[in-house]
Amino acid sequence: MSHAKFLTRCLQLANYAKGRTSPNPMVGAVIVYNGKIIGEGYHHKAGDPHAEVMAIESVKDPSLLVSSTLYCSLEPCAHYGKTPPCSLLITDKQIPKVVIGCSDTHELVNGQGVKHLQSHGVEVLFSSDPIPFRKLNQVFFCNKERNRPFVTIKWAQSFDGYIDRIRKINENASLISSPLAAIKSHQIRSEVDGILISAKTLNWDRPSLSTRNYNGTNPRPIILVNNTLPDSSALDHLSVPPVFIGNVSELEGDKIICDPYTIEKWLPELLNYGIHHVLVEGGGQVIQSFVDSGLVDQWHRFTSINSINEGVTAPKFDAPLTMNTLGTDRYERG
Ligand SMILES: [Zn+2]
């Protein structure tokens, strides 16, 4: 019987909790007896039982566990947190074989789960392809391994490579992309914890930074203050109170006081505000500075069929293309 099939089911199960497990990873588990799934479960949210516990408890006839295989998308934990360690539960239940999607690089697990299982005679196998399992929890792994939020950049540009026309401060921003792209943009927003823009972009565009065109929680605005202070009237438009970054001691509210130009210094501090995944939306120079610092983990680019002939140049970003169309726009991401 193919391990891949049951591991894929673990991925599906884990995905049911997408967006709800932070700061924990998404995890799914299934228990297979004689080629058939007899139990399955996933981690619903932080503080709730882990996937392995849910799967083991769902088995109707626990006497089958001693002859079953447990599949899980992530290495079972080995530490006492809000719940006892899953690797201990597996050995208590005498489950003889465990197949794992990928290792947990969290400092409290990091091979300890596997070590416990093997030292108790459990046969442990790993997926031949850990990539989908790493990708499932790419935000979690980035946070743990690089000690900073996962960074996504997103922008819309005209066919001839501009993100905005030349305009005066009170004129509305150009609508570069199609309505479908706007919906997609808000879906992308719904998957992050924070949206970063410069104070200059805030003052010019007066955005709400909400997910109003899509179902989801509004992310926390993060306002990068370099040489322009945010206008209080523009701040009033935001749907959620922001976090300020820069030489901002005089501003009221949550803030990270730092040199705004050294991104790698202040970026890790966003983790202290529960921002595990940040979307950088603009302006173009801010996006470009993330690209130039090598701090981009994921990107989305919408390209209109229309040209605007002159304006603010779009970020320069070389990456392998995955091309789609969305409405009348070209949509690339990676
Ligand atoms: Zn666990």
Beginning-to-end CA distance, first to last residue: 34 Å
Instruction: List the strand order in the largest sheet.
Output: 11-10-9-8-12-6-13-16-15
Shape: elongated
What share of the residues does DSSP label as strand, in percent?
15-25%
Tally the structural domains.
Answer: 2
CATH class of the largest domain, named: Alpha Beta
Q: Low-confidence parts, pLDDT < 50 over ≥5 residues?
A: none
C-alpha Rg, in Å? 23 Å
Strand element count: 16
Mean pLDDT: 92
CATH topology of the largest domain: Dihydrofolate Reductase, subunit A
The major beta sheet can be summarized as: 9 strands, mixed
The kinds of small molecule bound in this structure are: zinc ion
Helix and strand run: HEEHEHEHEHHEEHEHEHEEHEHEEEE
The helix content is 25-40%
The CATH architecture term of the largest domain is 3-Layer(aba) Sandwich
Contiguous helical run count: 11
Please state the structural category.
alpha/beta
Give me the CATH superfamily of the largest domain: Dihydrofolate Reductase, subunit A
Short description:
By secondary structure, the protein is α/β, with parallel strands linked by helices.
Structure write-up:
The protein has helices at residues 3-15, 51-57, 86-92, 112-119, 131-136, 138-146, 179-190, 199-205, 232-236, 263-266, 284-292; strands at residues 28-33, 36-42, 69-74, 97-102, 123-126, 150-157, 162-164, 194-198, 220-225, 243-246, 254-257, 277-282, 298-303, 312-313, 323-326, 329-333. The protein is α/β, with parallel strands linked by helices and 334 residues long. A hairpin with a 2-residue loop joins strand 15 (323-326) and strand 16 (329-333). It starts with a helix and ends with a strand. The protein folds into two domains: 3-141, Cytidine Deaminase, domain 2 (3-Layer(aba) Sandwich), CATH 3.40.140; 149-333, Dihydrofolate Reductase, subunit A. Strands 11-10-9-8-12-6-13-16-15 form a nine-stranded mixed beta sheet, sandwiched between helices. Strands 2-1-3-4-5 form a five-stranded mixed beta sheet, sandwiched between helices. It has a two-stranded antiparallel sheet with strand order 7-14. The mean pLDDT is 92. The radius of gyration is 23 Å and the shape is elongated. Helix content is 26%, strand content 25%. The protein is built from eleven helices and 16 strands. The protein binds zinc ion. The site of zinc ion has 5 residues, from loops.
